[in-house]
């Protein structure tokens, strides 16, 4: 079957992604309904934030129980950062947490760009299926790990096998048009908040089931199937297994319901180009001249516009990842080491409430907030919120969080509220940088899409953007957690003031921004 001739004029590479700025007809004002595939993608996306955040309530406690810290809680921060990417309490466990999360983003940095290029050639769906499989495998491995090396290997495996971050964004662009693209990305943001709410709840509620639910998980019935003492030996397997179950369900949904979004003409063209050197020939359709087979690598994608957009987001990502790593560290670390000594269930509840409030704000008020205050003001307010959150850690530690209501809990409430405002920064940053009108939540993703040299390189562009962010997130957790551990040894606050300084640097880059 051959493609019917196209009668309209070819679109330029940027027109293919965004409408001309002077379009002002009725059709441009009417939002197209979102295709049902967007909701399939939403369910698929739910697996990643759940798997990422399920370990937050107990990761510090887990690292502290390993021989790697030798009983010194002040070293936890060093190791925790390697395991957990954006969040963890300080203490001896700080180092471990930083290491694990840094390992995840380090392996992701090395491979995600290539996943983007691969999706431009073989299609989005196969890469998504591989990512979900890797997610389920790695989180299961994490729950069964009894050594620090096992935890690091599990996080490295997760980063190496999961290339979905950039590919999913490419699929949303290909499923939407200029009238509903912002809405599609808004739903992705809401999905992430839902997952970030459920993950900590699962992790905090299901950890150590033999102690919390002895009637079920300490019963002799487990002995009959060869699992005597299993839940005691692996106290954190149950929440990890539950997260793996979500990833496995998402894999099944993707296998059955997810459709390929990469235009078939381009896939056929790629196959024809490669099969000319083999024994197989393909009856293919010719792609339109403005959408050729993706060629070139980094040089073809790294235009000035793409480079400027990515560099700004890298700085914002550095601020965010430092906060994400420090929050669980401060919550879980012992008071004597500069933390709050909160239990995993309490940490899970706080993080879940934070995710719920943030998602509600994004879904219900973002559009009105932007219309009232404008992009630049909201973006700068988000940066200011990050500065407040870092300083509020100092106040919370000094005031303490007792069993009864006090000023410490009041500051914690302000901290959670500020985190919701800070979340608007990612939504507004693209408006600030490029002034793209009528874009709501998820503008950062739209910015990257609009900066892509062409649709043929969309997956590659998103892969490059994700690679850049992953590089920052690979270095940020270890740096923040290690600085936290160093500060804790002297009962100091250096880590928080350094982070405030980084926020100040990010604020300086926004001074020249206009609506």
From TrEMBL:
Name the UniProt record assigns to this protein: Major facilitator superfamily (MFS) profile domain-containing protein
Membrane association type: Multi-pass membrane protein
Alphabetized Pfam families for the sequence: MFS_1 (PF07690)
Classification via InterPro entries: MFS, MFS_dom, MFS_trans_sf, Tet-R_TetA/multi-R_MdtG-like
GO cellular component: membrane
Domain of life: Eukaryota
Annotated stretches, region: Disordered: 1-30
Any one GO molecular function term: transmembrane transporter activity
Bias (Polar residues) ranges: 1-10
Keywords, sorted A to Z: Membrane, Transmembrane, Transmembrane helix, Transport
Localization (cell): Membrane
Sequence ranges assigned to domain Major facilitator superfamily (MFS) profile in this UniProt record: 53-515
């Amino acid at each position: 079957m051959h493609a019917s001739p196209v009668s309209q004029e070819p679109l330029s590479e940027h027109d293919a992604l965004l409408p001309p700025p002077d379009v002002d007809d009725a059709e441009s004002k009417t939002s197209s309904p979102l295709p049902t595939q967007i909701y399939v993608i939403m369910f698929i996306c739910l697996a990643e934030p759940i798997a990422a955040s399920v370990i937050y309530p107990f990761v510090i406690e887990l690292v502290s129980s390993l021989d790697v810290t030798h009983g010194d809680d002040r070293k936890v921060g060093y190791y925790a950062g390697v395991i957990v990417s954006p969040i963890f309490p300080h203490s001896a466990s700080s180092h471990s947490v930083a290491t694990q999360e840094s390992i995840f983003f380090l392996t992701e940095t090395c491979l995600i760009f290539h996943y983007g290029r691969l999706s431009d050639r073989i299609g989005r769906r196969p890469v998504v299926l591989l990512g979900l499989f890797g997610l389920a495998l790695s989180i299961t491995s994490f729950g069964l790990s009894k050594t620090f090396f096992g935890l690091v290997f599990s996080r490295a495996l997760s980063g190496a096998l999961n290339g979905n971050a950039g590919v999913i964004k490419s699929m949303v662009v290909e499923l939407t048009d200029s009238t509903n693209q912002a809405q599609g990305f808004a739903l992705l943001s809401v999905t992430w908040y839902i997952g970030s709410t459920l993950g900590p709840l699962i992790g905090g509620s299901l950890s150590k089931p033999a102690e919390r639910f002895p009637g079920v998980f300490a019963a002799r019935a487990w002995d009959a199937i060869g699992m005597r003492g299993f839940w005691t030996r692996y106290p954190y397997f149950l929440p990890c297994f539950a997260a793996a179950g979500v990833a496995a369900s998402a894999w099944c949904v993707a296998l059955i319901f997810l459709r390929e979004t990469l235009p078939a003409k381009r896939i056929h063209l790629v196959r024809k180009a490669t099969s000319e050197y083999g024994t197989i020939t393909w009856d293919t359709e010719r792609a339109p001249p403005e959408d050729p087979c993706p060629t070139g690598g980094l040089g073809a994608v790294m235009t000035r516009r793409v480079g400027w957009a990515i560099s700004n987001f890298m700085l914002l990502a550095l601020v965010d990842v430092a906060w994400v790593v420090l929050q669980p560290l401060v919550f879980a670390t012992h008071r004597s080491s500069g933390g709050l000594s909160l239990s995993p269930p309490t940490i899970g509840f706080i993080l879940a409430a934070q995710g719920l409030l943030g998602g509600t704000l994004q879904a219900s008020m973002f559009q009105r907030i932007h219309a009232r205050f404008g992009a630049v003001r909201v973006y700068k307010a988000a940066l200011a919120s990050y500065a407040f959150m870092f300083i509020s850690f100092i106040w919370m530690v000094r005031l303490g969080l007792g069993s009864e209501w006090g000023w410490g809990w009041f500051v914690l409430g302000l901290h959670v509220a500020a985190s919701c405002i800070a979340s608007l920064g990612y939504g507004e940053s693209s408006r600030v940088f490029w002034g793209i009108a009528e874009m709501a939540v998820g503008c950062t993703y739209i910015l990257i899409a609009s900066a892509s040299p062409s649709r043929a390189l969309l997956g590659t562009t998103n892969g490059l953007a994700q690679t850049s962010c992953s590089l920052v997130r690979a270095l940020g957790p270890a740096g923040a957690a290690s600085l936290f551990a160093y500060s804790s040894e002297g009962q100091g606050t250096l880590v928080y003031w350094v982070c405030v300084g980084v926020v100040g640097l990010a604020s300086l880059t926004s001074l020249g921004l206009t609506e």
